[in-house]
Amino acid sequence: HYGVNHIHYDIGDQYNNGALVLNTLRHAISNDTLWFGSMKRLQESFSNKYLTTDEVVDFFSSTFDQNLDGFFDIYLTERDLPKLEIELKEDREGTLIKYRWNKENFLLPVKIIIQNKERTTIPASNAWQDAYFKGLKASDIKIDQRSYLFKLVSK
To answer: What is the pTM of this model?
Structure first.
């Protein structure tokens, strides 16, 4: 009550954003056993120590055996969220999705919801890519926007 631990500045929503970034990484890894094990190892490895951004990036890159520099660079150093640009083109036999991320070195896979139940994941980068869904209308296909922190841009 005497001003102890009083914060004299606005911390904004940095903790919420941090949680959303970690949740995005969790869904990208798509293996909860590995994810929660890594969170425990992170705490055990760095408890009672100051931790740098590079140490966190290296830890997760090593743990998940993939280069996550682009992922963390986008979410930690850029103001704007990554944008997933998509185009849906329906023909008589199915629907073509053309898609890409607007950021280089950002390799987050795209999660697709088919007919509001089935889920599939397709790889994505900043190069335009195609995925064709035979026998499906454009209205049957939705981009999962709940698992990741990003903006969707339809063309």
So the answer is: 0.80
Q: How far is CA 63 from the centre of its chain?
A: 17
Q: 114-155: per-residue pLDDT in tens?
A: 999 988 999 999 999 999 999 999 999 999 998 888 999 997
Tally of helices (H runs) and strands (E runs) in the chain: 4, 7
Question: Which position has the token pair 């963390």?
Answer: 72
Q: Give the gyration radius of the chain's Cα atoms.
A: 19
Q: How does strand 141-143 pair with strand 94-101? A: unpaired
In terms of Cβ atoms closer than 10 Å to its own Cβ (0-12, 13-18, 19+), residue 25 is buried
Question: How crowded is the C-beta side of 94, counted as CA atoms within 13 Å?
Answer: 9
Q: How many other CB atoms are found less than 10 A from the CB of residue 103?
A: 20
CA pair distance 97, 86, nearest whole angstrom: 7
